[in-house]
Amino acid sequence: MKKQFSVLASILFCTLHCLGQEGIKNALSNFPTLKKDSTVSIMILGTFHFNFSENSSDFKGEDNFDIYTDRRQKEVLMLIEKIKQFKPTKIAVEMMLSDQLIMDSLFKAYSIGAWKLGRNEVYQIGFRLANELSLNGVSCVDTRPVQIEVDTTITDWELYSKQRNELEKWEAYNEPNNQTNTYIENLRSRMTIIDYLVFLNSEMVKRRYKQFFLTGLVDVGAGDTYIGADLTGYWYRRNTRIFSNIKKLVVSGNERILVIYGNSHAWVLEELFEASPEFSILKIDGIIK
Question: Which residues neighbour 242 within 8 Å (Cβ) at sequence distance 6 or greater?
Answer without folding.
Answer: 141, 142, 143, 261, 265, 269
